[in-house]
Write a structure and sequence with these properties.
The chain is mostly beta strands and about 120 residues long. Helix content is about 0%, strand content about 20%. The protein is built from no helices and 8 strands. The radius of gyration is 14 Å and the shape is globular. It starts with about 20 loop residues before the first strand and ends with a strand. Bound molecules: zinc ion (2 copies). The site of one zinc ion has 8 residues, from loops.
Length: about 120
Amino acid sequence: MASVQTKREIHPLCYEHHNEMTPVQLRLKTRINGSKSPAYACREPSCLIRYTKPRGYFMPPGGNQLEEEITPCVTCPHDGTPMYLARVRRDERSFRLWRCPECNVSRTNLGSLLASA
Ligand SMILES: [Zn+2]
Ligand SMILES: [Zn+2]
C-alpha cells in the first residue's frame, strides 16, 4: 500500500457535474509552489475542471480558450483557503455546501456558516 496520505482526506465535487472528483497527477506545467497536494479531476472525460488545495478550482490553460471560464471562488473566512464543493442537494438545486480543506469549516451558499468538529 503506497498511498500517500495527506493529513486529511478531502472529497471535492465537480462544481459542474456534482460528482466526486478523483485524485490525479497534474502533468501540466502547473507548479504549485513545491506543494505535494494532489490535484483532483472530474470523472467526466470531457470535463477540464481541476481542484488543488492551495489553488481551488481551475481550468488548465489550453483546453478552452474561447472564453475565460468563471470558476467559483469561495474562500474560507478564517484562513482564506479556497474551499471545495462538498455537497449538493438534488432536491434543492441551488444549494451548495463548501468546505475548507485546512480547517474543515463548512459554509453554504445560503450564507450560513456551519461550525464543524
Ligand atoms: Zn465535471
Ligand atoms: Zn479554513
